TrEMBL record:
This is Calcium-binding protein. It comes from Acidisoma cellulosilyticum. The lineage of its organism: Bacteria, Pseudomonadati, Pseudomonadota, Alphaproteobacteria, Acetobacterales. InterPro entries: Serralysin-like_metalloprot_C.
Length: 307
């Protein structure tokens, strides 16, 4: 029995479903698509020369695949490693797979993660990930312009140092960490628990509970001129950085309860359209500001009113 079965004519292998990415996976197939169904063990190299994606590899457990050329890769096995070997794009579809390692290259990559667990090590090209119910670890390296959306599984996101990355928390536990001097990163808390560490950054970034709201967040800002966007039904505890930070509050109809630690004279507070201060009192924890939508802002350690 051969380890690789080739099917011509745009036929999706009958034993594979791409889960949440099935519609996108099926859209790649046409009359000229070649499907290489790998069901053995060992290391394999796939090279495509046609228009993206001219070749689709469906992998079995415990194999190593190196891609050359534009590919779409559907992974239903376990403990597989897939590496993009050149500067051409690929799309990966994970369905029920555990122990998957994806190494992206110098071109844009898109990953649909269903159930199972996966580790994604980004190359220099941008990476887009749509998470589902599985656990996910993303390491951005020196990449930029990445867009990572966590699902309901436990997720760890280590943003690339190139800047302009968007990391979005999910409905489960999401850990986010960014470092470096690049600017433009946006870290958004999901509806679950988001723990964000930006203490190693020097470039300006944005940490936000909007637009999702309803989640819990613990965040540490960096030394740049950072922005925190709160309110919107969130419960956030934010450690201000050493830069001139802005703490902005918006409303999505749900009152939030946010605490700012380390607020100082360099920092500013701003309110979105329609929000006004309706109350303020200094308590044992600090200055507590109440907004017109019911949101409370506690400036920990501040012993006087700001309004």
């Amino acid at each position: 029995m051969s380890d690789i079965m080739t099917v011509n004519g745009g036929t999706i292998p009958s034993n594979f479903s791409a889960g949440a990415g099935q519609t996108a996976f099926a859209s790649f197939f046409n009359s000229s698509t070649v499907v290489s169904d790998v069901f053995g063990s060992g290391a394999y190299n796939f090279s495509s020369t046609g228009a993206f994606p001219s070749e689709v590899a469906v992998t079995a457990p415990a194999i190593t695949v190196t891609l050359s050329g534009a590919n779409a890769v559907a992974i239903s096995g376990q403990n597989d490693t897939v590496t993009s070997g050149d500067a051409t794009p690929f799309q990966a579809f994970l369905n029920g797979s555990d122990g998957i390692v994806l190494n992206t290259g110098a071109a844009p990559s898109t990953i649909f993660a269903s159930s199972g667990s996966a580790t994604v090590n980004a190359g220099t090209g941008s990476t887009t990930i749509n998470g589902s119910t599985g656990s996910l670890t993303f390491s951005g390296g020196s990449s930029s312009n990445d867009s990572i959306t966590a699902g309901s599984g436990a997720t760890s996101l280590f943003g690339g140092s190139g800047g302009n990355n968007t990391l979005i928390g999910g409905s489960g536990l999401t850990l986010m960490s960014v470092t470096g001097a690049a600017s433009g990163d946006v870290l958004v808390g999901g509806t679950g628990v988001s723990i964000i560490d930006a203490s190693g950054t020097t470039g300006p970034l944005t940490i936000s509970t909007y637009p999702f709201g309803g989640g819990q967040m613990e965040a540490t800002m960096g030394s740049g001129a950072d922005t925190f966007v709160g309110g919107s039904g969130s419960h956030a505890v934010v450690q201000a950085g050493s830069g001139a930070d802005v703490f902005a509050f918006v409303s999505n109809g749900m009152p939030g309860a946010d605490t700012i630690i380390g607020f100082n004279a360099k920092d500013n507070v701003a309110f979105g359209s329609g929000l006004t201060v309706t109350g303020e009192a200094v308590g044992s924890l600090g200055d507590v500001i109440t907004l017109s939508d019911g949101t409370t802002i506690t400036l920990a350690g501040i012993d006087h009113k700001l309004w």
